[in-house]
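SEQUENCE-TO-STRUCTURE ENTRY
===========================
Question of interest: how does this chain fold, as expressed in C-alpha cells?
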Amino acid sequence: MRLNEFGALLKSVVENTSHCESDREACPKVIYIETGRQYERFDNLVHRAWWLVDVHFFTNVEFDPLVEALEDAFNGAGVPFDMESVLYGRETSGEMSKFKYLWKCVV
C-alpha cells in the first residue's frame, strides 16, 4: 500500500484526516506524518526501502469506538502497525486523548 492509499484508508474511518497538519480544534481527527526512512541492504546496495509513518488519532470521547475501527481497517487492508503510545487529557495540552501508531510504508 502506498502513502496516498493509506491516507484514503484512514479517511474512510475518520473523515477529518490530513497529511502533516490539521485544524487544532477539530476532533476526532487523524494526522499522518512521515518521520523517517529505513533501508534493507545487501552487499552495500539498497534492496528494499520503506517510510516510517506516524499516525496520530485525537479524540475527546472516552472509549472511542474509532480506535477499534482504525485497527480493524488496518487489519482488513493487511497494514502492519504498532500502537506506540496513548496520551490522555493534560498530557495532550487539552481535553483530547491521542493514540499514536507506527506504520511502515514500503517504497
